[in-house]
Specification:
Length: about 325
Amino acid sequence: MQSRITDLFEIDFPIISGGMVWCSGWELAAAVSNAGGLGLIGAGSMTPEVLREHIIKCREKTPYNFGVNVPLMRPQAAELMEVIAEQKVPIVFTSAGSPKKWTGWLHEHKIKVAHVVSSSAFAAKCEAAGVDAVVAEGFEAGGHNGKEETTTMCLIPAVRRATNLPLIAAGGIATGSAMLAAEAMGADGIQMGTLFALTQESSAHENFKRLCLNLDEGDTKLYFRKLSPTRLAKNGFQALVQEAEDRGASGDELLELIGIGKTKVGIFDGDVENGEIEIGQVTALLKGREIETVAQVMERIIDEYYYFRQDLINQAMEEIPSRRTLR
């Protein structure tokens, strides 16, 4: 399945796992890379020492390319970058900051760079900064979202018009048909977070996975617009946030409510009532499924993609003679 993304990252399929806090450890990254995609270690919840450990373990488990996601707003971003360069990681995905800050430095260390954006304007800035690829993440995604609140279906074609960079679609993608739709809109590959966060190899707690696999439509919502828009699932913590926002709580009050480590409490420790549960809208499509392996997920996505692609080709071939007759 060749595309500009498979060529750029030297992978078999243009499928990339999200670099998610408390979910994207070495085991998930290695499993995705072993299945033909590009696995990412999520450094957003790691110290430099822990990141080094995950990189070493990932390299022991896969001979294929993998990468690291670094949120640039992290206070330890510079130390994380030093570990990445020291360990000769070939690919870095950056987010939550300016792509100008690190792209040149990473290129000096022969590291390929993709940057996550939520608008076509930011995508154009990425091209000016010299990144190798851009990830356009729509409003449907879990965790931190762009303030523009643009959906994936609107964002991908807008970013495609704004830049000729290799384009990765993200946000609300969990099926082969969605992968095909993203390609039709101009994407060269896809990034999936929610689907991989709920696999056996994800480092998230089983309580988190079970909760997310039982969510309905409307059970996730965007909060913290005064700070950094974040998609949360319904639970006790979310109810406290909604009550605070409904009464007009200030940004400082919301920061105090978040406290320290609320995402760890919910996602990694498994306190799904009192912790912060970040997950995408697409989880409603997964309701009732068992916790699958990465290999099972990859096989299904690829099979669905080819099934729908061939179905569309067959339909077009059947319609062409009738259209010619009408003319």
